[in-house]
Amino acid sequence: MSYKNILVPVDDSPISYAAIEHAEKIAKAFDSDVTVMCVLSVDPLRSIDFYKVAPAITQYVLEAEQNAQGRLEDIKQTFQAHGITIKTLIIRSVPPATGILNVAEEIHADLIIMGSHGRKGIKKLVLGSVAQEVLGSSHIPVMIVK
Fold it and tell me: What is the pTM of this model?
């Protein structure tokens, strides 16, 4: 089996960088193209129309996007320095798992590599698991890195 188009969703957690390291090794071994993406989640307060809340939310969203762009640029430079073809994307206004699965389909990915925090029990129930949702819904192989 060969992986020609790898999708790597990342966030600002250290576990994302572990997934990036695995993706880099696999991309080198199979001469794969890589797409690294961030999902800026749906803002649950978006529909609230409080005068004093709106500027804080707007600033938060702008900062999140700037952080994502910086993170993706750093990753892109590293991959390019190692001779790996890479694209980066920021997806907005969808739940993370939905964004990941949609992009995987759009780019015809044949492997998704993503980190998982390994939450269990009540933490998983309350916080959810994007990795678990992607794993359960994907029609292509998913590598989960802890």
Answer: 0.85
Tokens found for residue 60: 């938060």
Phi, psi dihedral angles at 110 (to 5 degrees): -115, 5
From CA 9, how far away is CA 107, in angstroms rounded? Answer: 13
CB atoms closer than 10 angstroms to residue 11: 18
Q: Are strands 86-92 and 33-40 parallel, antiparallel or unpaired?
A: parallel
Amino acid at 56: A
> What gap in Å lies between CA 113 and CA 142, rounded to an integer?
6
One-letter amino acid for residue 54 of the chain: A
pLDDT tier at 14 (50, 70, 90 boundaries)? confident
SS3 content of the chain, % helix, strand, coil (to 5): 50, 20, 30
Q: CA-CA distance, 102 to 99, in Å (whole number)?
A: 5
Which residues, listed in sequence order, are joined to residue 113 by a DSSP beta bridge?
143
SS3 77: helix
> In sequence order, what are the beta bridge partners of 143?
113
